[in-house]
Amino acid sequence: MFCCDCGTSNPDTAIYCHKCGNTLHKMTTEILQPVLPPNSPTPEPEFTQEQRQLVDELFSIDKKPHECHACGRTDNLYTCDFGLAKKTGTKRDWSTTAWSVVVSAVTLPLLGAGGLNMPDKKNRLSVLRLQLVLCNVCRATNFAYHFHPWWETAKRLGYTEFFDAERLKQLQPVR
After folding, report:
1. Other C-beta atoms within 10 Å of 138: how many?
2. In the chain, % of residues over pLDDT 90
3. What is the pTM of this model?
4. Cα–Cα–Cα angle for 89, 166, 137, rounded to 5 degrees
């Protein structure tokens, strides 16, 4: 393997050039990719167009993490975690339905009774985890989640399901 920067010959198992220290690349399917050390984390996947749009639109809004989202005060602040979710898919688990059909095929002739379980339905959600910042005055007089600067843009982008702090804790990430 040769270094792309200085041209020095290196062993095929090398990760860095022995002469200049730059990362070595190896040719795989005609695309240059960095050689990763064993047991290293895999690179993050590329963003989809929708994710890129979301990131661009939300980060262009001034978040003001150290100001009250309602009035702009910077003292006696209170934070409240919440989330806005968008349904991205539905998955049905047909295994319970199949099992109930098998059991009914046996029990119906023998006992004259059987049952059919319908498939379980699990929704896949994309959740924005947000934090509302309010001063003590606004918290006591007009507490509302819509004061968060991202609220309107997130709703416009389809994030319409509200999650309070307790419901956020119950979410299970998809791997």
Report:
1. 22
2. 0
3. 0.53
4. 120
